[in-house]
Design brief:
12 helices; single chain; Ammonium transporter fold; about 325 residues
Length: about 325
């Protein structure tokens, strides 16, 4: 074979227009168990939230790409995944305007303007969630209510398991079994870790994600919590640790490429989750930790840069 017939191009060399769409379809399938559980628990409230978040996320992606004269990519399913994840992060009782604002921030700012699909630095759904979460707290200090409208952000339906753990509240503390199958405090995704694990197992089976990041996060939270005098098992079952570990920290774009980079990434997130929960406020710890971890990804990719094919160490 003549060498002058070879064409040299920059990576990636394996390209498929269908790859993103297939991966997003698998994520939607994986989110089905927790979504169905949320619908059973919160009925029309959960359905309304999912419809508003998914619909507005898809609309904003269509609109912003049209305005920027770029190809509309709704068919790849990424906007639908962002919208559904955002809905699962939110409580059942939240004003529709807050959901639309969160979708706008997630899709237009975090996804499209801060890099675009495949180049965004932060997880869009978490970015949108944290925006309205911080905005709600800021407005509460000025207006006396949470949310962008009065009564617009009812963060919890009852005392969350983490509140019991953190503040030592009196009353029946949710059991491990309840946290696995039927706990209704906090976000609508916090209805049982078992349903998240089902979806996470499916993603691992389909090889959409690998085991490194979820395992590192869960092991770090479990061990460090016990070191600091907290219940490690309760910490990984309560709140959004499972959802964050399997569905958000593993996002291809906002997580490291190299295996050791993924380990350090998982350690950063796990350590931050425990420190924020133990020494700060329990709510939002997973979201903050993953977004902070996202900010370290470019550095981790640089530090743990894989060797080029054929590269050898100089003698």
């Amino acid at each position: 074979m003549a060498l002058d017939n070879l064409v040299v191009t920059p990576p990636p060399h394996l390209k498929s227009k269908e790859q993103t769409a297939i991966a997003m379809r698998d994520v939607l399938i994986a989110l089905a168990p927790i979504s169905i559980a949320a619908l059973v628990a919160f009925t029309y409230n959960a359905l309304f939230n999912m419809a508003v978040c998914v619909g507005s996320a898809m609309f904003f992606e269509w609109a912003v790409r049209k305005m920027r004269k770029k190809k509309v990519t709704l068919s790849d399913g990424s906007a639908a995944v962002t919208g559904l994840l955002l809905a699962l992060l939110l409580p059942a009782k939240i004003h529709w305007l807050n959901m639309i604002i969160a979708s706008f921030v997630a899709v237009v700012i975090a996804k499209e303007l801060l890099g675009g699909l495949g180049r965004n630095l932060f997880n869009p759904a978490l970015f949108g969630f944290v925006f309205i979460w911080i905005g709600s707290g800021f407005l509460a200090s000025w207006t006396g209510h949470l949310g962008f409208l009065p009564g617009g952000f009812d963060g919890v339906q009852a005392a969350t398991p983490l509140a019991y753990l953190k503040q030592g509240l009196e009353g029946p503390v949710p059991s491990y079994a309840a946290l696995l199958f039927a706990n209704y405090g906090g976000a609508i995704s916090e209805v049982g870790c078992f349903w998240v694990l089902l979806g996470g197992g499916y993603l691992l089976y389909r090889k959409v994600i690998n085991w490194v990041i979820p395992t590192t996060i869960l092991a770090t939270v479990f061990i460090l919590a016990y070191i600091l005098g907290s219940d490690g098992l309760y910490q990984i079952l309560a709140g959004g640790v499972m959802l964050g570990a399997f569905f958000m920290a593993t996002d291809w774009v906002t997580s490291p490429i190299n295996r050791w980079g993924q380990v350090v990434f998982g350690l950063i997130i796990g350590i931050l989750i425990v420190l924020i929960r133990v020494y700060g406020a329990p709510s939002g710890a997973v979201a903050y930790s993953i977004l902070i971890g996202n900010a370290f990804v470019p550095l981790l990719d640089k530090v743990f840069k894989p060797k080029r094919f054929g590269e050898v160490v100089a003698a």
